[in-house]
Inverse folding.
């Protein structure tokens, strides 16, 4: 079983739609949760960072962590064509260097 | 966040040869990390590079295949040795940052194709 599972998609939505991206994980010791956006031929760009459970909002982006279910989500409101990219979830234990990534979900927002 | 520059951005190499990838950071950092991103797979940590000591390799990665240098606090290199087509991948340099160094920032990656 992989440490982190993420549906690879691809996911296509019309402009303006609400997008929901999700990851599940198996290691209950994970405490730090991140979402990265990766455009084609670019490195991952940190979008959202959350410690432990709860919600965090930043503009059109909301990250949710449910540690009891080992489930994290990223919501994108009013999606734009510029949001078209691959979204990667990542997580780590406290004090650990190693980040565990999902395989990424490829999102296309259609104008 | 730190600005991370990698060279080369891409390369096509013959099997059996070696390629050295450079990573330059615009600020001093204690640890630098090298990841591999194979098609359709998760980013995977290869090793952690500390200045002044040998790199720490993750399971499945060995120094003979992926030697790493860390001569100072802003620079590191990763060499992919004796390459085979299975080494075709994107290689990414990363540093810790943010509050309590718990966030990870990445360079733009090096896209390697071995023929």
């Amino acid at each position: 079983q992989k440490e982190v599972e993420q549906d690879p998609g691809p996911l296509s939505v019309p402009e303006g739609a609400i997008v929901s991206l999700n990851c599940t994980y198996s290691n209950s010791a994970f405490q730090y949760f991140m979402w990265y956006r990766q455009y084609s031929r670019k490195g991952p760009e940190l979008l959202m960072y959350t410690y432990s459970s709860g919600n965090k909002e930043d503009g059109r982006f909301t990250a949710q962590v449910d540690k009891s279910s080992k489930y994290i989500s990223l919501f994108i409101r009013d999606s734009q064509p510029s949001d078209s990219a691959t979204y990667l979830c990542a997580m780590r234990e406290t004090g650990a260097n190693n980040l565990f990534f999902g395989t990424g979900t490829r999102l296309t927002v259609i104008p | 966040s730190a600005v991370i520059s990698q060279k080369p951005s891409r390369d096509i190499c013959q099997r059996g040869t070696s390629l050295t990838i450079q990573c330059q950071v615009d600020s001093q950092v204690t640890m630098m990390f090298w990841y591999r991103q194979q098609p359709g797979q998760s980013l995977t940590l290869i090793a952690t590079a500390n200045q002044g000591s040998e790199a720490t390799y993750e399971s499945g990665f060995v120094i003979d295949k992926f030697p790493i240098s860390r001569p100072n606090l802003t620079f590191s290199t990763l060499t992919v040795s004796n390459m085979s087509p299975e080494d075709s991948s994107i290689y990414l340099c990363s540093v810790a940052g943010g509050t309590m160094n718990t966030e990870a920032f990445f360079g733009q990656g090096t896209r390697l194709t071995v023929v």
About this structure: The two ends of chain A are 38 Å apart (CA to CA). The mean pLDDT of chain A is 93. Chain A touches chain B at residues 2, 4, 8, 32, 34, 36, 41-46, 49, 51, 88, 90, 92, 97-104 (CB under 8 Å).
